[in-house]
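Reviewer 2 asked us to include a model.

Predict the structure of this chain.
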Amino acid sequence: MKIFTAFLLATGCLAFAGAQERVFELSPAQTHIDFFLPAMLHTVHGTFQLKRGMVGFDPATGKASGEVIVDATSGETGNSNRDDRMHKGILETAKYPEIIFRPDHFEGKIPAEGAVTLQVHGVFSIHGKDHEVTLPVEAQVGVDQISATFKCSIPYVKWGIKNPSTFLLRVSEKADIEIHAAGHLAPSPGSVTTGR
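Predicted model (structure tokens):
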């Protein structure tokens, strides 16, 4: 009886661990991407649009995979002249049309349902270069839905992107990014990748 009980517990734990491997498919319609660039007199606020995103994660190992792809050409701040300069002279979006985050692992325990705070490590690709980052992520996990908030500060000048400051307007060398995402949560059949 003891052996039989141990066998049931072991197989049950393995089945539960396998069921925990999940895929978070972000919905572009439910995802909002904001950036804030502090300036001398005010903070410039702008937005980008999500192109597509899918993140796989395994709570048993802490491994993550997939891509979150932002359409860099969609960036706007509400000022056409400033936006034109941002696209042509700063981000060069005709040459670098995508901003991509590729997660590879995370720290934190993901519940079957409920709130969770994670530290997600990965590679942030912008303006043709890759940079290692760790993003704090706050998420609300449901049965088949998930919502998450990513926040980070991007040292864009240090990363080789031109500072848009002018003689009359001085801006910070760091930009703050906030992503409020929501989408579908499903069991993972294996490793997750998305085409570019």
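The longest helix spans residues 2-20. Residues 1-19, 191-196 have pLDDT under 50 and may be disordered. We have added this to the supplementary material.
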